[in-house]
Specification:
The protein is α/β, with parallel strands linked by helices. Helices cover 44% and strands 17% of the residues. The protein has a six-stranded parallel sheet, with helices on both faces. A six-stranded mixed sheet has the order 7-6-8-9-10-12, sandwiched between helices. The structure holds alpha-L-arabinofuranose.
Length: 350
């Protein structure tokens, strides 16, 4: 009787321990990437995958924290990332839209870290305030790729590579082309529509443009204000500029095409002809900007390439293969005005 009780106690203990171990196993799995698989995950059916299906943990999981959807350029960048990773079965993309808020981006990065993604891509809304969260990613051994905008950090090893444009050069090209087309000996008062305050795209485009303008005493930036990279705010700020300075304005420099398109509307509503009465130059090179050049309302667009998906994918694959990466993977870009813009319009995809 006692022997029977002892054996029964032993069997119950073994059963209980193995149940506990299996429960722990499930919890452990829930901390890995597979736990983010949809609906049926954790139901006990996920292991019944067909023999030839690629194991979920073979996928390279990429977490992408996007700024938002403030411009046509931004939409094109999002699409490029979604197409590149969505069409490649080796990858799984986790996409997060921060709606212009740095705090949302920091939260998204922390979620990606807890999900143990293989790589993080970050398009940082502003330059500063990233050290802590990038240190957390580094401590978790997750490479971070900066996309399109840069960050200011004391330790460059906090990110793997920056993939994007030379914003200072874009600003310089905007000013040089303006002088080339208007003539450097003419008196020109410029109003500037800045991008998002604190964004590297705004800081550097301002810096590059100012450098060239400051070297020519005939050219002056008489007003400068942020239009937050949006068409609506670009229009609003331009309306205010026109109200205060009206016919004293000879040129507009907008840090992106969307703000320039808003400014064009404001100039027309004010009763002047954009592109003729007021010279307009902007940055990006989105299709509506090429159309505005064709229609004579925009003078110049300085290209900034948003199609960064393929470069990001290659960088992640190279990193995984142990290939040394450039700290800055630069985009190829051009400057468009006149017939060159009209000729390029049919092939513009975004
Ligand atoms: O960081 C790139 C800039 O961000 C683009 O020029 C602008 O359109 C976007 O919002």
């Amino acid at each position: 009787m006692f022997k029977f009780k002892k054996r029964s106690f032993l069997m119950t203990t073994v059963l209980a321990v193995s149940l506990m171990l299996s429960a722990c196993g499930n919890n452990a799995a829930n901390n890995t990437k597979e736990s983010n698989a949809p609906a049926n995950a954790g139901t006990g059916t996920e292991s019944a995958a067909p023999a030839n299906a690629p194991a979920a943990d073979k996928k390279i999981v990429v977490g992408f924290s996007q700024i938002g959807a403030e411009s046509g350029w931004r939409d094109a960048e999002t699409q490029s990332i979604k197409d590149t990773f969505g069409n490649d079965p080796q990858f799984e993309l986790k996409f997060s839209d921060a709606q212009q808020k740095q705090e949302n981006q920091i939260k998204a990065i922390r979620t990606f870290i807890s999900q143990k993604v293989d790589a993080i891509a970050l398009a940082p809304v502003v330059e500063s305030g990233w050290e802590t969260v990038l240190e957390e990613a580094k401590a978790a051994n997750i490479p971070v790729f900066l996309l399109d905008r840069t960050v200011k950090v004391s330790d460059e090893s906090l990110y793997t590579s920056f993939i994007g444009s030379d914003f200072i050069l874009e600003g310089q090209n905007a000013a040089k082309t303006m002088m080339e087309l208007l003539g450097s000996d003419k008196q020109v008062n410029i109003v500037e529509l800045q991008g998002t305050v604190g964004a590297s795209a705004a800081n550097d485009r301002q810096k590059g443009f100012k450098e060239i303008v400051d070297a020519n005493p005939n050219y002056k930036i008489i007003k400068s204000q942020s239009g937050d990279f949006t068409r609506a705010k670009g229009k609003e700020v331009m309306e205010a500029f026109l109200k205060s300075d009206g016919k004293n304005i000879q040129a507009v420099y907008a840090h992106n095409d969307d703000m320039a398109l808003g400014a064009i509307q404001a100039i027309e509503e004010y009763g002047l002809k954009p592109g003729t009465d007021i010279f307009v130059v902007s940055v990006d090179g989105i299709k509506p900007a090429f159309e505005a050049i064709r229609d004579g309302k925009l003078n110049v667009t300085v290209e900034c390439n948003p199609l960064l998906g393929p470069q990001l994918k290659q960088a992640i694959l190279d990193f995984k293969a142990g290939t040394a990466l450039d700290k800055w993977i630069k985009s190829d870009e051009d400057v468009y005005f006149g017939q060159k813009a009209i000729d390029a319009l049919p092939n513009r995809t975004y």
